[in-house]
Amino acid sequence: MQLDNPPRKPFIARGSKIQRCEHCLLHTAGCICHARHQIVAKVQFCLLSHPYELYKPTNTGRLIVDTIAASQVFHWSRTEPDSAFIKLINDPAIDPYIVFPAAEDYQHRMVNFREKTDRQPLFIILDGTWRQARRMFRLSQYLQHLPVISLNTQRQSRYSLRKTEVSDQLCTVEVAAALLEQVGDQHAADHLDSYFDLFNKNYAESRRF
């Protein structure tokens, strides 16, 4: 699923009365769509998004789709996964990895990234709060065969629009940028970081309206 026309539901939290851009969801005075530009990266991204996440203006997953070509978004379901997602992760031309912190109980699934000449790397990011992502990882039987890759980064989060459940936790777009650095694609990481910085700045300023 692409985010050009994302499904909507009423947004009734703080800031719901703000006049927002239909795409970036920022205040129209701080719209960042003029800076939206996709580049081809060494890897592709797939967001498996919790049903509540895409409707939040503070969601950063859409920034990945805006900047990294061939990125895709699918809604997560525990028992009824999107058939297009299942087809994607089983495509012999795709080399899928699920991104999640290391743990002993699935140590056998943990791998280091190694680029394959005949397959396109695909990093699957679980897009939601830490509690939601952990539930998505544990309860989705259709993900259990996938290798798991974890971040190896010293990055500190620059995201201040939400309180995190885990100390020093990176937001979704920061995870993607760290992964790009991890696989040696600094150009794409910098491109994503730049767009994220603009989002952070304009969103913070929009709270004054």
Uncertain regions: pLDDT < 50 for 5+ in a row? 1-8
CATH topology: Alpha/beta knot
The average pLDDT value, as a whole number, equals 89
Measured as a percent range, the helix fraction is 25-40%
The chain-level structural class is alpha/beta
Distance between the termini: 32 Å
Strands of the widest sheet, in order across it, are 2-1-4-3-5
Q: Give the number of helices.
A: 5
Q: How would you explain this protein's 3D organization?
A:
- It comes from Amphritea balenae.
- This protein is an alpha/beta fold and 209 residues long.
- The chain starts with 43 loop residues before the first strand and ends with a helix.
- α1 links the parallel β1 and β2.
- α4 runs antiparallel to α5.
- The chain has five helices and five strands.
- The chain has a single domain, classed as Alpha/beta knot.
Give the topology, please.
Elements: E1 44-49, H1 61-67, E2 72-75, H2 83-89, E3 94-99, E4 120-127, H3 130-139, E5 148-149, H4 172-182, H5 186-206
Parallel strand pairs: 1-2, 1-4, 3-4, 3-5
Helix pairs in contact: 4-5
Tag the structure with descriptive keywords.
EC 2.5.1.25, tRNA-uridine aminocarboxypropyltransferase, transferase, globular, DTW, alpha/beta, tRNA-uridine aminocarboxypropyltransferase activity, 5 helices, disordered N terminus
Short description:
With 209 residues, the protein is of the alpha/beta class. It is built from five helices and five strands. The chain has a single domain, classed as Alpha/beta knot (3-Layer(aba) Sandwich), CATH 3.40.1280.
